[in-house]
Design a protein that fits this description.
By secondary structure, this protein is of the alpha+beta class. It has 17 helices and 22 strands. The strands form five sheets. An eight-stranded antiparallel β-sheet has the order 18-15-17-16-20-21-19-22. It is globular and about 80 Å long.
Length: 487
């Protein structure tokens, strides 16, 4: 390598000059000029990519960040693949040379999960083709955002059964972790609504898998935190949906009544969507807001009396509004636009996302809220809503064993936005997590909790040997997605 080009300045020239080799001595990428003027004798020719491998500072700095803005692990390069074969070539090259790699979508995780220190990040956003949409299914590239898929399916009266609250995320990204939303009590998580996957395994093979063809790979990859393969295509379930949604909100002074009503409405499936939140009150304490939605067609409006019958919300707090199905699913867009415009989107987000067993939910929520101040949240919401375990059909993500469980999400922002404040909240997350774990709760691992291998063994519990074995088989050189810190 040309000694006049430092590793820092190398990134700048790499953006403009084609990369042709990798130097395992300095762990750096080489251009044709570098090779001409003194490249290492050990330099290894790169495979030819139809896409582009970049090492410019802007790309590397971007790949060393995520929505959390807490952890920063800088890669050596970012691959923007043009096709599946580019990923195959990278995986095979990485296996031979001991290079860690990992896919990245919108990087909406909060603790560096999609980052790869001194390795290669695969920017999956370039694989964003929507190949086919028909009644019952959609075939898409892993880099497709759910909002783009919904835009196309809405015109056909179709939609994915479950959507996350924020839909500007990639299909591959949410399928790697689970994908939870307010429809999950009926339809399961997003991983429960997948018909087929195309995956590049850690061995470098391209595999098509489904519940009936290579099911071991299929169920390992869905919710598998990127440990076994890179999802490159997915065939997703679609359902017919009417074009309108009636949204109801109501307030509760008592947590037990709020939780009981949530369980009541998911048991009888009167609503298509059920979520809720804890709302801090002036002077301390919380009230609780139920949010529920019913889909309907124009001219066939739902009965408010039927849908709210038997619910014990506080008198005078029931409100309703009618919106289009698309606008309902994209309801966070104005909030996100405001946060970005005000610069708040760039604040650290030390989130905490927990699954609580039903039998312990009230006590655990009371405990968490009693030690959570307004300053701890930085204006972020606290979500609380139930899921029926019978609606889940995949082994991952791991959830409590009871028939119902609750999601408790502390969607924190660090205010002031300093590393000290962010780390203080990460430390609080760890304390809360240990309390929840001791009560047989689980994490939804997109959040900010530092974990070691023993923590992961406890997290996966009885299925840890299967998870560990699948890693050894599908990614024998342990090159995939190191940011989760599992292996």
């Amino acid at each position: 390598m040309n000694k006049n080009i430092s590793r820092r300045s190398f990134g700048a020239v790499g953006a403009a000059l084609a990369l042709v080799a990798f130097d395992p001595v300095v762990r750096g990428w080489l251009t044709a000029d570098d090779m001409k003027y003194g490249g290492s004798a050990l330099a290894l020719d790169l495979p030819h990519f139809d896409g582009v491998l970049v090492t410019d500072a802007v790309s590397l700095d971007g790949a060393a960040d995520d929505f959390g803005h807490i952890v920063h692990r800088r890669p050596m390069a970012v691959l923007k693949p043009a096709n599946t074969n580019d990923i195959v070539k990278l995986v095979k090259f990485a296996r031979k040379n001991g290079i860690k790699i990992g896919p990245r979508g919108q990087a909406h995780s909060t603790q560096g999960q999609s980052q790869v220190a001194a390795g290669v990040v695969i920017d999956m956003n370039s694989l964003n083709a929507i190949y086919d949409v028909r009644p019952g299914s959609a075939h898409v590239g892993a880099g497709v955002r759910w909002i783009d898929l919904l835009t196309k399916t809405t015109a056909m009266g179709l939609a994915p059964p479950t959507l996350t609250d924020y839909i500007d995320l990639t299909v591959g990204g949410t399928l790697a972790v689970g994908g939870i939303g307010g429809q999950a009590h009926q339809h399961g998580l997003q991983v429960d609504n997948v018909l087929e996957l195309v995956v590049v395994t850690g061995r470098g093979s391209v595999e098509t898998c489904s519940p009936t063809h290579q099911p071991a790979l299929f169920y390992a990859v869905l919710g598998g935190l990127g440990q076994f393969g890179v999802i490159v295509e997915a065939k997703l379930k679609l359902q017919a949906v009417p074009g309108r949604v009636r949204v109801y909100t109501a307030m509760y002074s008592r947590l037990d009544t709020f939780l009981s009503d949530q369980l009541k409405v998911i048991a009888d499936k009167r609503f298509n969507y059920v979520e809720g939140s804890a709302v801090p009150q002036t002077g301390g304490g919380y009230r609780y807001q139920l949010e529920a939605a019913a889909y309907f067609a124009t001219g066939h409006e739902p009965s408010d009396a039927v849908l709210t019958a038997g619910l014990a919300f506080d008198a005078g707090t029931l409100a309703k509004s009618d919106v289009s199905h698309f606008d309902f699913c994209n309801r966070l867009a104005p909030v996100v636009a405001f946060l970005k415009g005000a610069g708040l989107w760039a604040f650290p987000h030390p989130w905490l996302n927990l699954f609580l067993p039903r039998s312990r939910a009230q006590a655990l929520i009371d405990s968490v809220l009693s030690t959570t101040t307004d300053a701890d949240m930085g204006g972020g919401p606290i979500l609380i809503y139930p899921v029926t375990r019978a609606a889940l059909r995949t082994a991952l993500p791991v959830v409590p064993s009871e028939s119902q469980f609750f999601l408790l999400s502390l969607l924190r922002s660090a205010v002031p936005p300093t590393p000290t404040q962010a780390q203080a909240l990460v430390t609080k997350n760890r304390t809360i997590y240990e309390t929840v774990r001791s009560a047989h709760g689980k994490r939804y691992p997109i959040d900010s909790v530092a974990m070691n291998r023993r923590d992961w063994e406890l997290h996966f519990g009885a299925i840890w040997p299967l998870f560990d074995g699948a890693k050894s088989y599908f990614d024998p050189d342990n090159i995939l997605t190191p940011g989760q810190g599992i292996f």
